[in-house]
Prior knowledge:
There is one protein chain. Helix 2 packs antiparallel against helix 11, helix 2 packs parallel to helix 12 and helix 10 packs parallel to helix 13. The chain has an eight-stranded mixed beta sheet, sandwiched between helices. A two-stranded antiparallel ribbon has the order 8-9. The chain starts with a helix and ends with a helix. It has one domain: Inosine-uridine Nucleoside N-ribohydrolase, Chain A (Alpha-Beta Complex). The protein has 13 helices and ten strands. By secondary structure, the protein is an alpha/beta fold. Bound molecules: beta-D-ribofuranose and calcium ion (CA). The site of calcium ion has 7 residues, from loops.
Amino acid sequence: MNELRKSERRKIIIDTDPGQDDAAAIMMAFGSPDELDILGLTVVAGNVPLAMTERNARLLAELCGRPDIAIYAGADAPLKRPLVTAEHVHGKTGLDGPDWPEPQMQLAPGHAVDFIVETLKREAPGTVTLCTLGPLTNIALAFQKAPEIVPLIREIVMMGGGFFEGGNITPTAEFNVFVDPEAADIVFRAGAPIVMMPLDVTHKVLTHKARVEKLRALGTKPAQAMVAMLQFFERFDAEKYGSDGAPLHDPTVIAYLLRPDLFKGRRCNVEVEVTSPLTVGMTVVDWWQVTDRKHNALVMRDIDDDGFFALLTERIGRLQ
Ligand code: BDR
Ligand code: CA
């Protein structure tokens, strides 16, 4: 790869709590080396406790032939609340489905929050994108520790929240925001440019049987593992929503980096409910611009779902 090409690659940190849909996002990113320069993976507690999410991140790096990638363990609990997990969706390990080996690679030394802070300070200002696929605890901790990094961020592209679709863990709250609403509140108030992939988008991206069959037809080991993960993951959501397949939330973040034209949304103000017992974790989106609150996010609402699955399949197909 020549130097020009290298400098065009978008530098990203993926903050994640894998999770089968996190796995799809991570695999999609590993399958896109021409466009994405993955500086590291930072792991957070969310779908399952940290001991499992960091293990899962290592398993995925090895599955994709990338044991060289730096994986940092981060926060093992939300800022102010006990951890809520989602084994009912993702299984006991968080990555149920395939028969996984024990991971061989080690975690990188140091804490995820320090890695985020140091990386943003080291790289040229405005060049690093944070891709967040789980609760926002690590990002909020980094902002609290070193507020001077906020203006250095190119963009935060996050899976989180929901508005027109309501919630998936309570009637009004989406899981990632619900688990650590105080962290989400810090991130939305910080002033960094945010692109938000809410349930309004991710509920339009369903793992229809025909789509999963296209992944299966790739025949590679990573694709087979993906299919086994999706088949486990689907059983809960397909029953819950009565749909053909489950919403594949997290890879919308990576798809946006590769093909922003697949998405439609608008700039809005988003605030997070942190007190009401009834609606805690709700993302209140001023979609109709009925307040004069400052726009702080590009909130997506629509996606070309066929285009998205074609891209996902193509990128996972590049992994051997
Ligand atoms: C989000 O919650 C998790 O269960 C998924 O991995 C995704 O990040 C969807 O609400
Ligand atoms: Ca996730």
